[in-house]
Write a structure and sequence with these properties.
Layout lengths: L1 H4 L1 H20 L4 E10 L18 H9 L2 H14 L8 E7 L5 E8 L2 H59 L1 H34 L2 H10 L21 H23 L7 H92 L5 E5 L5 E3 L3 H26 L6 H7 L4 E6 L20 H15 L10 E6 L6 H13 L5 E5 L7 H4 L8 H6 L4 H4 L1 E2 L5 E4 L8 H6 L1 H13 L2 E5 L8 H5 L5 E7 L5 H13 L4 E9 L17 H13 L1
Helix pairs in contact: 2-10, 4-5, 5-9, 6-9, 8-9, 12-13
């Protein structure tokens, strides 16, 4: 609905945007365009030469920006001035675009001078290649200088380490150092082995008694002597207490066996048995003696073993210190030699790198070459379609923005559904738009056989809504018709509502309650004599001021004399007496009134009538002002019966009342048929 009403705003925006775009296109200067191409090509890689490495992640974009760099542009301008000084200088725009799915750059130069544009683009290609070569040369010089500095540093450190090696060899006699270390390690291993054997021997001597030691010595082979001298207490003796002890044990065992043999035949008192017992007792005494001596010999052997262990431990510590010293000096010597080897390798690598850099500086490694030189500049008009399209789109968007702005600040309702959603009050009737007669200002009142059937039926709908409205107590008989602001059709609704009520064969009094500007008498072709204001002032009686209209049952009480203080009159008891008198003499009293926001008259009069009808003009009345007017009436305890939506467009999709005109012509058709039959 908003677009149908303000379509010209969008059309104006589109026309304005397109017109400005067309003017911009027409006012463009003559432009010439020259094109060239560059491509990323290969290069020769020498095995002994280095290569200039570039950042390849964003290579195409980086090189495109480098071509447009201000420094290259300045050099290109100077190159053109030097090589073609006779060509006038002009401003040239440069555009660089990588072609999709390729390694080719498309360069486009546009300017006002065709020859200068071509020369400038060629100069860009030349200076770009020269700049890249200079960058590589600078990098090569910097790398060569850095390598020379590093070679000098490594050579100085190498000489220092070699001098250190000579001094170390001289001080430590490294020629014999390794042999001494091997000999010390072998002797230390032998000492540790002997120390382990002695510790094991000492532990066994602590655990065994005399019998166990004798049995062990018997099983062990005789030692070869080794480091032990003859008579060493650690060597088991071939004679001595231990051997005698063992022999005594053997003899006593033999005697016991012999006695056991005789015991089967002889008695214990037999001389042989007695002699054997005496011999066994003697041997037992010898065993005890030898056992004591054996224990002393075991102690002597333990002490000797312990002393030997202590001596070996001291010797081992001394040789361990010697071996550690030799090992440390050997490690230092090896470390110095490894450092010298590492520095020599580093020196050789740096020398090779320097040679590679020199080769690289003498070999062209450029990977970007000119694929196509600048073409002769041709006339070009850029962006005509784009400019016109942009103007059209911007104009359209501007019009839409204006519509949105209007919709934000324009709170007028142009949909019946939106009206019902905005106002929760009861909608009594929807009055369609009715055109005025030619030369007329207001809508003509209803007639008995009015052909404006939708208008007639809408007023009848209002009447039915009043009759069948569910109310508490007696139904209302005095009605006040009002609106928020002037020109919303309240007087038209009040007049035609009164006519519709009078057609119901009841007595209706139509009162022009707008004491300031009421003009209901003009609509009924009646004079404005004594009227409502005169009755309230007590200047005349009600019956003398009432005028009969051409509509049967409808009487009019016009505005009467102009009143300066209608609000005070409406608040007085004279208004109460008038309403009681009118209610007693007529079936229905319908009162027109002033707008609620125009004066306080209606707010003072409305609380005294039975019901108030609030008129809202479709697509004209302000929602905010109308809501404020309704709030004002409710604050005055006014019984707002409902709303009347006036001047609704019948073409709206949500307006579907009384559109079927074929239902309203039957009466005229029947009358025509009767006249034809009589003829």
């Amino acid at each position: 609905m908003l677009l149908r009403k303000y379509w010209w705003v969008v059309a104006f925006g589109v026309a304005l945007g397109t017109g400005i775009a067309a003017w911009l296109v027409a006012s463009q200067k003559q432009i010439y365009m020259s094109q060239a191409r560059m491509m990323v090509s290969g290069k020769i890689n020498l095995p002994e030469g280095g290569s200039f490495s570039e950042e390849m992640t964003h290579f195409m974009n980086t090189q495109g920006e480098l071509m447009k760099d201000e420094a290259i542009r300045t050099r290109a301008e100077a190159y053109v001035r030097t090589t073609a000084a006779e060509i006038p200088v002009s401003m040239v725009m440069l555009r660089v675009e990588p072609l999709p799915q390729t390694s080719i750059f498309a360069l486009t130069a546009t300017g006002e001078e065709p020859l200068y544009t071509q020369k400038f683009l060629d100069a860009i290609l030349h200076e770009y290649i020269a700049t890249r070569r200079e960058m590589r040369s600078q990098k090569g010089e910097f790398a060569a200088g850095a390598i020379d500095d590093e070679i000098e540093r490594v050579a100085a450190e190498l000489r220092k380490e070699e001098d250190r090696l000579l001094a170390f060899q001289r001080d430590n006699k490294t020629g014999f150092l390794e042999q001494e270390g091997n000999a010390a390690a072998a002797y230390l291993s032998k000492l540790n082995t002997r120390l382990a054997e002695l510790r094991n021997e000492s532990q066994l001597l602590d655990l065994f008694d005399a019998d166990q030691q004798i049995a062990r010595d018997r099983k062990m082979p005789k030692p070869d002597g080794g480091d032990l001298r003859e008579g060493d207490p650690r060597i088991p003796s071939a004679t001595g207490p231990l051997l005698e002890y063992e022999r005594a044990r053997q003899r006593i065992e033999t005697l016991k066996a012999e006695r056991a043999g005789y015991a089967r035949d002889l008695t214990p008192r037999h001389p042989i048995m007695v002699e054997l017992d005496e011999q066994i007792a003697q041997q037992q005494q010898l065993i005890d003696t030898f056992r004591k001596q054996s224990t002393e010999e075991l102690k002597r052997r333990r002490d000797a073993t312990t002393l030997e262990i202590r001596n070996l431990e001291t010797t081992v510590k001394e040789w361990e210190a010697k071996a550690a010293s030799n090992s440390e000096r050997l490690t230092q010597h090896a470390g110095i030699q490894a450092g010298i080897s590492r520095m020599r390798a580093q020196y050789e690598n740096l020398s090779r790198s320097k040679g590679s850099v020199e080769i690289t500086r003498n070999v062209d490694q450029e990977i970007i070459s000119v694929r196509q030189k600048a073409t002769p500049a041709q006339t070009a008009r850029f962006g005509v379609a784009r400019t016109l399209t942009t103007g059209f789109v911007l104009g359209l968007l501007g019009g839409i923005v204006c519509l949105l702005g209007i919709s934000m600040f324009d709170d007028r309702i142009d949909s019946v559904v939106d009206f019902q959603a905005t106002f929760p009050d009861r909608l009594l009737a929807t009055i369609p738009h009715v055109s005025c007669a030619v030369g007329a200002v207001d809508v003509a009142p209803l007639l008995p056989d009015d052909e404006r059937h939708t208008f007639v039926e809408s007023m009848r709908s209002l009447r039915s809504s009043i009759f069948f409205l569910p109310v508490e107590g007696p139904p209302p008989r005095t009605f006040l018709v009002t609106s928020a602001v002037p020109n919303e059709g309240k007087s038209t609704v009040a007049l035609n509502f009164a006519i519709t009520m009078a057609m119901f064969d009841v007595r209706v009094l139509l009162v022009d309650g707008d004491l300031r500007r009421g003009e209901l008498h003009h609509a009924l072709d009646l004079p404005n004599g004594a009227g409502f204001g005169d009755v309230l002032n007590g200047d005349c009686a009600l019956q003398s001021a009432v005028q009969q209209t051409r509509v049967p049952g409808l009487s009019l009480l016009s505005r009467g004399s102009t009143v300066q203080n209608p609000g005070e009159l409406f608040l007085s008891t004279d208004t109460d007496r008038f309403l009681r008198a009118a209610d007693a003499q007529y079936d229905y009293v319908i009162m027109d009134s002033a707008p609620v926001t125009a004066a306080d008259d209606t707010s003072s009069l409305a609380p005294k009538v039975h019901a108030t009808l609030f008129v809202f003009r479709f697509a004209t009345s302000s929602m905010r002002i109308s809501q404020k007017a309704l709030d004002t009436l409710r604050e005055r305890q006014v019984n707002v019966l409902g709303l009347v939506c006036n001047d609704v467009d019948e073409s709206l999709q949500d307006y579907y009342y009384y559109r079927y005109s074929e239902y309203y012509g039957s009466q005229k058709k029947d009358a025509g048929k009767k006249q034809a039959a009589r003829a």
